[in-house]
Amino acid sequence: MDHMTLLREFLQFPLDNADGIFTKFASLERAVIAQGQNPLERFVYIPGTRKDRVLLVAHADTVWDAAYGNPQETTPILDGHIFRSSNPTCGIGADDRAGCAMVWALRNSGHSLLIVHGEEKGKHGARFLRKAYAKLYRELNRHQYMMEMDWAGLGGCLYNQVDNTPAFKAYITETLGFTDSQAKGGCDLQILCHKVCGVNVSTGWNHCHRPTETLDCDQWLQNYEALERFLEKPQPRYPIARISRMKRFAGKVKGKLGALARKLHLRPAK
Predict the structure, then answer these.
(1) Based on the domain organization, do 21 and 71 belong to the same domain?
(2) What's the whole-number mean pLDDT along residues 172-190?
(3) Which of 4, 126, 114 is nearest to 53 (CA)?
(4) Which pLDDT score is estimated for 270?
């Protein structure tokens, strides 16, 4: 299947639910499927076969999911090499259906795959996995590192709120060739990365969460081809920066103690 056909297939799944995405990935051999009480508490995991496997992540929900209270639908229109929305009130869900398509295209790479639900508003699927599937959560953190396909444009990446080491960032820059976008933003890696580093990489979408959202097919293909070549190489393991993690924890404790002290100080005397 060529990349244009693949992208059209993923963009044509309904925006207001993730059922089609999960059904597709659940069809893969060795898929582990889980659903919690909350509809957004959902994931499917396919373990890789390589000893040096990386965890490849994407989220199946869009901001127009019915669970978020504002369901929308559209027909993606191909304008040259750009997919646009036919609906003036919503985008095409390329965030993160473009990422799901990329993970699917890499399904035979020997690396592990993880598709989660509920990323856009609360990262529900990732939190559910961490809380309800502790053994699997530990398995995920025995991967070499994690990579989420959920960032904009071409050849960029985001190290959002994971205690990544300088060595890991240098490895991604020098070996993959993607540069740090130095932008703010969250993704599932904030929840999933407990012992290993993680990076969020470009998939070619732009103007996410807006009616003007687009997917540049040429950018998607260039990103995919770079990732495919990169992931064929032997992959080293990159544990997180534990000192930074400890400092962050200490800062949270200090903040809570400070708030408690102020509260006690302001309490009126009896």
Answers:
(1) yes
(2) 94
(3) 114
(4) 44
Question: What is the tens place of the pLDDT at every residue in 26-35?
Answer: 999 999 999 9
What string of H, E and C letters represents the secondary structure of the chain? CCHHHHHHHHHCCCCCCCHHHHHHHHCCCCCEEEECCCCCCEEEEECCCCCCCCEEEEECCCCCCHHHCCCCCCCEEEECCEEEECCCCCCCCHHHHHHHHHHHHCCCCCCEEEEECCCCCCCHHHHHHHHHCHHHHHHHCCCCCEEEEEEECCCEEECCCCCCCHHHHHHHHHHHCCEECCCCCCCCHHHHCCCECEEEEEEEEECCCCCCCEEEHHHHHHHHHHHHHHHHCCCCCCECCHHHHHHHHHHHHHHHHHHHHHHHHHCCCC
Is residue 243 over pLDDT 70?
Answer: no
Please indicate, yes or no, whether residues 269 and 188 belong to a single structural domain of this protein. no
| CB distance 90 to 15 below 8 Å | yes
Using a 10 angstrom Cβ sphere, with 0-12 exposed, 13-18 middle and 19 or more buried, the burial of residue 37 is exposed
Structure tokens at 241: 């920066």
Same domain assignment for residues 168 and 247: no
- What's the predicted TM-score (pTM) here? 0.90
Do residues 166 and 254 share a domain?
A: no
On the question of pLDDT at 18 being above 80, the answer is: yes
Q: Same structural domain for residues 136 and 245? A: no
The one-letter amino acid code at 16 reads: D
Same domain for 260 and 190: no
- 69 and 164 in a single domain? The answer is yes
- Residue 247: give the domain boundaries: 241-270
